[in-house]
Every structure is written in structure tokens, then in C-alpha cells.
Design a protein that fits this description.
Oligomer: single chain
Number of helices: 16
Largest sheet: 9 strands, mixed
Shape: globular
Helix content: 40-55%
Length: about 375
């Protein structure tokens, strides 16, 4: 994979109507005037980074507006930001994948049609569940019926590349209730599903509730049952698992995320966004006021830079690449880093192969069916 020729552009929109109690991302309900400040600062950051040599060397194959809830911004603003980006940066000759995250309850059918006309060609829809009780627990502002309606409206607006986000392992959730959500999702003939096990993040209201013992998370055997339900639901469908948590029909895998998992180059715009450029990880301030002041002063949007040493970058590429079911190409790793993984990991890799958590075939190293549910353990051994 030619990294500089398949870069990703990410725009972080930090606003949400209501902060979900499980969310640890930089996001918050906007106060008066903050959206205007964000737009001006992000446009200024876009213009200043577009002239950097390390950015001019990139050709972008994808754009992703994430958050937060990008669909809280007026469609005209999203359209203007996309138009400016397409004028400032170099894009592939093939039509780039241009995604915007939307949440049911924040968009109307008219908005979706305008987004499609503006050039967005992929939607990532934050469904999470079709169960209204679970949605209320998660702090979501929509109902299951509203989620189904927005999916229908998106297709009518001309979006044929839709991804639904779903969550399992929720407090009080059972295998049967998760199966009901899966059944409803599959009935909508999805071309892409992102299905994540709930992670309790420190500092969130969910973490505080867990410490108080306010509710019970599903036991390990229940989680395994939910994972098995995913396998059963997707078997025989157009969806194929291509990453630990992601399933896509042929040609509908998320190109933007694939670039992340290949540890490719990407430029992040907006407060809290991260860039990976020229071997450096650059972090923008996760504070709107600080971000705006830095950009207004002519300073780079990022306030922290991290450079991984050669071996650390290799290990990171291995761990991220193993998230994909296709795994990593051993010759590609050696060409990119000059490291033979069999020699580098030695007994550790041999043990994981003997335990049948990893397999090596046709020059690739990948997680086995046994290893996929234990991916975190395997990654910790290789990091």
C-alpha cells in the first residue's frame, strides 16, 4: 500500500446535542458563538496546513467528518468545509470516499439530500441499538423507530453506502435482546456494520456508575454468546468480517479506517484531532478555546508532537494491522521497516502460533478464529 498516495483527511467536529455517559471523546454541547469560532479556526487551520511540504506530498483517498455529532452543523457549513478541502488538497483520480457521521434525531430527510448533493457519498449512522430502553440508558436522543426511518430516508436521498454503528455488552443486555437488535439491523440489508463491545472509559458517568454498582455488565459467557450471535446473523449475508469489529459487503469496507489500520498517513483538522505525518503523531489541543487561539496566532493547530522510534513504529503497525482479518503482509513489514518479525518477536510469536491464536499462511500473519475474541491479549504480547 502506497501510504502517501492513499492518505486520509479527518475533520473533528466536537459538538453534540447531549454528551453520552459512556463517551470519552472530546465533545460537548455548544454554547452560543462556539460553532462560529470552530468554523473559522478550522478553515484557517486547513489553509495553513495545506501549504506544508509534508501535506503537499500527500494524495488523499478519503475524507471523514467525525465527532461529536457533525450533523449538528448546518449542511451549508459541512458543504463549505468539504468544498474548501477539495480545493486545497490533492485527491485521488478515483472518487474519494467522503464520510460524515450522523445521529438519528439530528438530521431531516431534506438535510440528507443536501449532503449527498454536496459530495458526501458515505454515511456512518450512530444507531447503537434498536431497543428504546437501551437507547435511553446510553443517553441517546433517538428511538429505534427514528433510526430505522433515517436509514430509509438516507437511501431515498441517494446514499447507497451506509454504515450502522451498534453496541453490545451493555448494562442489563442479554443475548436475546442483542439478537433482536441484530435481527432488525439485518432486516435493513446493511452494506456495512460496525459492532463494538462497550468499553467503560475512566472519567465518564458510566465509569462512576460501574464503581457504585448501579448496574451489572454482561458476564464473559454472555459476551461470547453475543459475539456468536454476530457470526450467525452475518453468515450467508453479503457482509464479511474484515476487521475485529467491522463487517462490510464487497467494495464497502471503510477505506478511511483501512488507512488507519495500515498505519498510513492522515491529516486531522479541528480541536482534539490527531495527524500522522512524516513519522510524527501530531495532536491538536482538545480544547476549543486553546485551539482557536493557537490558530488565530498563526501557530500550528497541534500543540504536541510525538515521534515513535523505528522499532516502536513497527510494533504499532503490526498491532494495528492484526486488527484486520487479512492480517499483515510479512514481506511488506520487512520492506517498510527492515525487520523480520519471526526474528524480532522470536519465542513470543512462536508461542502465539503454537497456541493457535495467530496463524501464518501465504506470507501473511493473522488472528485465527480462536484468536479474534482474545485479540487484546495477543496485541498486548506484541506491542
Amino acid at each position: 500500500m502506497e501510504l502517501a498516495a492513499n492518505a486520509g483527511l479527518y475533520v473533528h467536529v466536537p459538538f453534540c446535542r447531549h454528551k453520552c455517559p459512556y463517551c470519552s471523546f472530546y465533545s460537548f454541547p455548544p454554547q452560543p458563538g462556539e460553532i462560529t469560532l470552530f468554523i473559522a479556526a478550522t478553515q484557517a487551520q486547513m489553509r495553513s496546513t495545506a501549504i506544508l511540504p509534508e501535506v503537499r506530498a500527500l494524495t488523499f483517498g478519503s475524507v471523514f467528518f467525525g465527532g461529536g455529532t457533525p450533523s449538528l452543523l448546518p449542511v451549508s457549513v459541512l458543504s463549505d468545509l468539504l468544498t474548501e478541502a477539495r480545493g486545497l488538497f490533492t485527491f485521488t483520480a478515483e472518487e474519494p470516499e467522503i464520510t460524515v457521521e450522523i445521529n438519528p434525531g439530528t438530521v431531516e430527510a431534506m438535510d440528507l439530500a443536501q449532503l449527498r448533493r454536496a459530495g458526501f457519498n458515505r454515511l456512518s449512522i450512530g444507531v447503537q441499538s434498536f431497543d428504546d430502553v437501551q437507547l435511553r440508558l446510553l443517553g441517546r436522543i433517538h428511538s429505534g423507530a427514528e433510526a430505522r426511518a433515517i436509514i430509509t430516508a438516507a437511501r431515498r436521498a441517494g446514499f447507497d453506502n451506509l454504515s450502522f454503528d451498534l453496541m453490545y455488552g451493555l448494562p442489563g443486555q442479554t443475548v436475546d435482546s442483542w439478537q433482536a437488535t441484530l435481527d432488525q439491523a439485518m432486516a435493513l440489508a446493511p452494506v456495512h456494520l460496525a459492532m463494538y463491545e462497550l468499553t467503560i472509559e475512566e472519567g465518564t458517568p458510566f465509569a462512576q456508575a460501574a464503581k457504585r454498582g448501579d448496574w451489572r455488565l454482561p458476564a464473559e459467557d454472555e459476551i461470547l454468546g453475543m459475539m456468536a450471535a454476530i457470526d450467525s446473523a452475518t453468515m450467508g449475508s453479503d457482509l464479511a468480517r474484515y476487521e475485529i469489529s467491522n463487517y462490510g459487503a464487497r467494495g464497502r469496507q471503510c477505506r478511511h479506517n483501512l488507512n488507519y489500520w495500515h498505519n498510513g498517513f492522515y491529516l486531522g483538522l479541528g480541536p482534539g484531532a490527531v495527524s500522522c505525518l512524516g513519522g510524527e503523531r501530531r495532536f491538536a489541543a482538545a480544547d476549543l478555546s486553546t485551539f482557536c487561539h493557537r490558530v488565530a496566532a498563526g501557530l500550528p493547530g497541534w500543540s504536541e508532537i510525538e515521534r515513535l522510534d523505528h522499532e516502536a513504529a513497527c510494533r504499532e503497525t503490526v498491532v494495528m494491522g492484526l486488527r484486520m482479518t487479512a492480517g499483515i503482509e510479512l514481506a511488506g513489514i520487512k520492506q517498510r521497516f527492515g525487520i523480520d518479525l519471526s526474528e524480532y518477536y522470536g519465542a513470543t510469536l512462536a508461542r502465539l502460533l503454537t497456541q493457535q491464536l495467530l496463524a501464518q499462511q501465504n506470507g501473511r500473519l493473522f488472528l485465527t478464529a480462536k484468536g479474534l475474541p482474545l485479540a487484546n491479549y495477543v496485541m498486548a504480547e506484541l506491542v
